[in-house]
Amino acid sequence: MLLLEIKNLHVHFKGMRGTTEALKNMNLKVSQGEIVGIVGESGSGKSITALSILGLLEENAMIAQGEILYNGLNLLQLEKQELQALRGKEIGMLFQEPMTALQPTMKIGKQLYNVIKKHRKLSKQEAKAAVIQALKEVHIDNPELVANKYPFELSGGMRQRVVIALAMAAPPNLLIADEPTTALDVTIQYEIINLIKRENKRIIIGISGHGGSGKTTFVNNLLKLLGETNVNYINTDPYIIGSNLRKYTIIKYEYKNKVYQDKMTACHPAAHNVSSLERDIHMLRDGIEFYTLSTHYSKSFLVSSQYKINIIEGMSVAFTDLSLYDLKIYLYTDEETELKRRSIRDVSERGTNINYLNKSHEERRIQYELFMHPFHNNFDIVLKNTNTNYFIEKSFFNL
After folding, report:
1. Which end of the chain has fewer surrounding CB within 10 Å, N or C?
2. 328 Cβ partners below 8 Å, 6+ apart?
3. What is the pLDDT of residues 326-379, one digit of tens each?
4. Could you count the other beta carbons within 10 Å of the beta carbon of residue 323?
5. Which H helix or E strand runs over 29?
């Protein structure tokens, strides 16, 4: 049975400089029980398509042409009150940003209660019980406590779950999700914090990924959430053999039936002083204090045996004995996103020539696929990310 059909949809936006065509000739069919994904780069019209269905476009937007049929009913011909009656009950929406999707001055439980009472024929007590059940279904611990909190009191990942609970509260026949994985990095970080709090012993967390994978940003956000200065954080860049030496090391390899002969990049295991890093992690586990390596870009500091939390982050982690870590996290991204991030960092901040970067990036990415990416299978948590989203490919947390 056909549930939704979009026919030749065109959306324009009126501005000071005239009219902009934001969506052109969009066609889509969704049958009952079917899952359909819309894929496209930022600004390609994914969110505009979703918002058009529910009539939630901005005031300067105009649907110039097309039809949006829900169960045969043209949504574009409905009055505001008729469309409002369909929202939530018939068609649910998961918005991209959880903080703006929630009413900031209303407690979570009250927001869920209002939705449930509006769309389901339940008594007051039944609706209250349904609120708690809805929070449990999105794996929120202590749902009674969360129901009594305001949105600003919750983490981004927790708010994301609440938004999912709200969207499913009716429950709707059609659910539209606009980039619902945006806050999953925060969800993972809070699960890590909960794990740390449960442990009474020294804990060592290994975080790895290729250059531009987002691993350092992930660690910085984790450190902020921990809110503690009593954390040993070791970046493993000093354990990488310098490019001034690696440029003389030529390796031969085959990729997609083509033979390559290039200088060794940092994606190769031999480019890392693995034994030195493993020695230092053993000392860390045994409570032996030591000073980190000093480089021209980082000063040496004392790694304290008194700190419970120890974070080791960098490419080198992937090539070490992973049994040395209590928790292992791996991040990676697609080739295009990596190049964009490296362009910003290496060209803008380090003065790298863009033509050299483009050429070296191709070599680096091929070596990454061959020599580093296979190690991601050995990690506890694997996160693929873009500039807008996180995707959990593997996790032992109940997410």
Report:
1. N
2. 205, 206, 207, 208, 317, 322, 378, 379, 380, 381
3. 999 999 999 888 888 877 766 665 667 777 777 788 889 999 999 999 999 999
4. 8
5. strand 18-31
Give me the residue spans of the domains in the chain: 1-78, 87-180, 185-394
Token code pair at residue 260: 């390559």
**How many C-beta neighbours within 10 Å does residue 370 have?**
15
pTM of the model: 0.61
CATH fold, domain 185-394, is Rossmann fold (3.40.50)
Spatial separation of the C-alpha atoms in residues 146 and 250, rounded to whole Å: 57
Query: Considering only CA atoms, which of 231, 270, 228, 226 is closest in space to residue 249?
Result: 270
Q: Say which CATH architecture domain 87-180 belongs to.
A: 3-Layer(aba) Sandwich (3.40)
Name the helix (H) or strand (E) containing 114.
helix 108-119
pLDDT tens profile 266-282: 999 999 999 999 999 99
Alpha-carbon 350 to chain mean position:
27
* In the predicted structure, residue 284 carries a pLDDT above the cut 80: yes
